[in-house]
Design the sequence.
């Protein structure tokens, strides 16, 4: 037979399309043509496939080899087609039977010596394969753990090409694929008990985790803003399986799974440096569109330290994902949508020199500089931040305390309980968190106690509050009520929410 | 071995390969019309007329090892096009322009023990 056929997947963002790899070997001078809109990395597959075949003691056909990746109109990229092309060539050459590879999706890059290397985006690729009815997959050993998340599929893995071939020819497995999955969750996560003092900021973090409220921490350098933010994932509830799959899929496409176990149920935290570009923040790129920091923080925390130092427009590019929970990136190669539901935590110094706290005696900034500094956080963005919290320098008494603060596990128990209360309340609604209650529902079904509403309406009348601010405060007060065990937010809850939202000294 | 010697050796190998090909063609029933026909643009190793009246222009590649790849790999698109121009030049010179013709290539591998294998691929263009 001079025709061979295998199956692989082309990824476009998180969506995958099944690609049929067809190889025809015809008489003629030795030639290799690759059809089906390959990118540069894919075009170089010829040399990798050839070297891998020869170094696995297979015969390279010195004939006219035509490789077609169909559908032909779909642009394809990356080295993940190497293995499927190599196997299709061997089938076309008559060196392999076709049957065992019917409806097996093949993903892997080939090293020159025939080893099978990992590729990006295995999980989303397998999800696409499964949706189109494929039940078996052949992947590299490094991708095995990630691929195994698709427990409905049969995953096969081999370290190199010759063992794949031996298996396909004889059904014999020479080295048992590693079957144990690394399910251990990282134990060396930081803990909230490390944070000294900072009762107000700790409480704000707890509220943020419970209701999904975005948070701004303002305080001098060294007060513990970063410490608090980096411990937020430890008090967020563990990801559900579906959520973990979504997170792993996004990280897989970005190629950042090296830093995160594919099985991890811990909410991700992404902290881009303040020099990050807009593309780094929301995603983009000219050839292959990659997810940005806000998608990598999906179902987790996006923490931006020194937020006022960010370039103009970078923070504001987060407004769309903050609103819709997704980010749509349009480029000449097409437009893509990535999920981006994250908890935004911004940290800022009170002024450029960082010493404008308390009486502000040590501060050397002019009042104009101070105003301009925090003014860089634009109005529309600040409108979406539910809490502005001052982080004071740690005091002498707090530092001297030998007792450790409350641990993450204890706080998380309260967060989980508060979230459960909210979820039970919203059982018949389309949202799950207090921060997601639409404003119409706030005016009708989810009104706080009458005394609390009177207080808010007074504030509104005195023009101390905008209508949007009022809604934000009500949402926040629902979380406070859930944490305190109140059925309805009372006056104290609303006043506290008001205080958290406005920031006391700002 | 000196460079001059190497060159001579290669020429010998080439001539040997062409000899084998000629015998193969004769056995097939072809009439050998020309050998090493040379013009400024290049050279045609063999020209033969097969029994069905087609002119064959044959490039012979002889190798004593696969260290430099398969003989056929030495024939790229440019080389094939040059052979076609040469073929047309030959036909024009001999007044047969418009006759049916084919460009063929032959790969000959000579093993260390003197045994050889021949691979014939016709109509490459």
Sequence:
């Amino acid at each position: 037979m001079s025709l061979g056929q295998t199956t692989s997947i082309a990824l476009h963002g998180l969506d995958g399309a099944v690609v049929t790899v067809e190889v025809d070997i015809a008489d003629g001078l030795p030639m290799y043509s690759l059809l089906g809109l390959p990118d540069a990395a894919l075009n170089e597959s010829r040399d990798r496939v050839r070297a891998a075949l020869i170094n696995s003691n297979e015969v390279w056909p010195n004939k006219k080899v035509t490789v077609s990746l169909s559908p032909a109109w779909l642009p394809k990229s990356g080295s993940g087609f190497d293995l499927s092309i190599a196997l299709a060539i061997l089938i076309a050459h008559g060196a392999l039977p076709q049957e065992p590879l019917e409806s097996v999706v093949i993903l892997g890059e080939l090293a020159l010596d025939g080893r099978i290397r990992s590729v990006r985006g295995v999980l989303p690729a397998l999800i696409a394969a499964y949706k189109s009815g494929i039940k078996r997959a052949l992947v590299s050993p490094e991708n095995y753990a990630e691929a195994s998340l698709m427990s409905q599929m049969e995953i096969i893995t081999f370290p190199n090409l010759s063992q794949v071939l031996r298996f396909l020819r004889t059904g014999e497995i020479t080295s048992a694929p590693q079957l144990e999955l690394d399910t251990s969750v990282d134990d060396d996560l930081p803990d909230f008990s490390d944070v000294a003092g900072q009762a107000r900021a700790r409480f704000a973090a707890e509220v943020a985790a419970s209701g999904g409220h975005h948070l701004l921490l303002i305080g001098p350098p060294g007060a513990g803003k970063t410490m608090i933010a980096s411990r937020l994932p430890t008090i967020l509830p563990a990801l559900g399986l579906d959520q973990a799959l979504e997170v792993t899929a996004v990280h897989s496409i970005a190629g950042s799974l090296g830093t995160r176990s594919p099985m991890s149920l811990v909410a991700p935290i992404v902290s881009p440096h303040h020099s990050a570009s807009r593309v780094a923040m929301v995603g983009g790129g000219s050839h292959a569109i990659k997810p940005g920091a806000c998608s990598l923080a999906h179902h987790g925390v996006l923490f931006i330290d020194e937020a006022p130092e960010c370039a103009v427009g970078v923070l504001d590019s987060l407004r769309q994902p903050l609103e819709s929970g997704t980010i749509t990136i349009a480029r000449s190669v097409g437009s893509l949508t990535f999920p981006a539901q994250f908890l935004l935590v911004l940290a800022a110094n009170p002024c450029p020199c960082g010493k404008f706290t308390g009486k502000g005696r040590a501060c050397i900034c002019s009042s104009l500089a101070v105003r301009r500094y925090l003014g860089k956080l634009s109005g529309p963005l600040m409108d979406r931040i539910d809490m502005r919290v001052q982080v004071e320098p740690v005091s002498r008494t707090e530092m001297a305390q030998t007792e450790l603060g409350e641990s993450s596990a204890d706080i998380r128990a309260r967060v989980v309980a508060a979230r459960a209360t909210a979820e039970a309340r919203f059982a018949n609604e389309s949202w799950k968190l207090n921060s997601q209650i639409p404003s119409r529902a706030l005016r009708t079904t989810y009104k706080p106690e009458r005394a609390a509403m009177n207080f808010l309406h007074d504030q509104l009348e005195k023009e101390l509050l905008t209508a949007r601010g009022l809604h934000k405060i009500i949402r926040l007060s629902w979380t406070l009520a859930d944490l305190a065990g109140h059925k309805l937010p009372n006056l104290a809850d609303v006043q506290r929410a008001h205080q958290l939202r406005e920031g006391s000294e700002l | 071995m000196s460079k001059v010697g190497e060159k001579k050796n290669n020429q010998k190998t080439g001539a040997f390969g062409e000899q084998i090909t000629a015998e193969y063609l004769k056995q097939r029933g072809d009439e050998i019309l020309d050998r090493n026909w040379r013009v400024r643009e290049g050279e045609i190793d063999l020209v033969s007329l097969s029994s069905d009246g087609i002119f064959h222009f044959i490039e012979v590649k002889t190798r004593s090892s696969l260290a430099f790849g398969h003989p056929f790999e030495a024939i790229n698109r440019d080389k094939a096009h040059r052979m076609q121009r040469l073929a047309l030049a030959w036909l024009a010179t001999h007044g047969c322009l418009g006759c049916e013709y084919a460009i063929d290539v032959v790969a000959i591998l000579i093993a260390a023990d003197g045994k050889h294998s021949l691979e014939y691929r016709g109509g490459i263009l």
Q: What stands out?
A: Residues 3-121 of chain B form a domain with the Trna Endonuclease; Chain: A, domain 1 fold (CATH 3.40.1350.10).
